[in-house]
Amino acid sequence: MTSPESARLRARPAPPSAAPLPPGDHRLGIGRERDVVLVVPESYDAARPAPLVVGLHGAGGNAARRIERLRPHAERIGALLLAPDSVGATWDVIRGGLGPDVRRIGAGLAFAFARFAVDPARIAIEGFSDGASYALTLGLPNGDLFRRIFAFSPGFMAPPELVGAPSVFVSHGTHDPVLPVACSRRIVPQLRRLGLSVDYREFDGEHVAPDELVRAAFDSL
Description:
With 221 residues, the chain is α/β, with parallel strands linked by helices. Helices cover 32% and strands 23% of the residues. It has seven helices and eight strands; from the N terminus they run αβββαβααβαββαβα. It has an eight-stranded mixed sheet, with helices on both faces. The longest helix is centred in the middle third of the chain and has 16 residues. It is globular. The mean pLDDT is 96.
């Protein structure tokens, strides 16, 4: 069983202690072939603390693919985007337990917080498919850090505990052949029983995250 301690992220927003990075995509060197990328949008405004979104890819995916999906929405709201590659083909909780990916995400957050002023009330974690399952699994025990969780077509959640009271956005296609809509229909009542605010959107579609729903989630940030 995964321990609560293994899920905890310790990095927190603080006054920057290092020089900021220019707009663009910055590989952080946390891994060799599979790394963490910090995207600084052209719309970033150094005069005020920025939103930050951690974006998690699906099984077999990578950070680059997730970045391209999220970039227009991060640009629109001036959000920093932190996109890790999973250490393995998918996230650690699916491969046996929380650990390597938690540490990788924590290192990426520490890097971002050291260089940018981040609004603590506007930090989110999101993902698609396996990434959505992981966003819920990691977001709920770190709800004091992630005030919002966006889960697009999740399959499950396995948080060792709930910390804080993050709001949750969930979407799922009613004809999803990969992770059936029954997954979210099971997850959403569990979230509500925890006393969390949940915005649940079903749509007539398959295993996708429609752009208008990604926009709606980002607009809530």
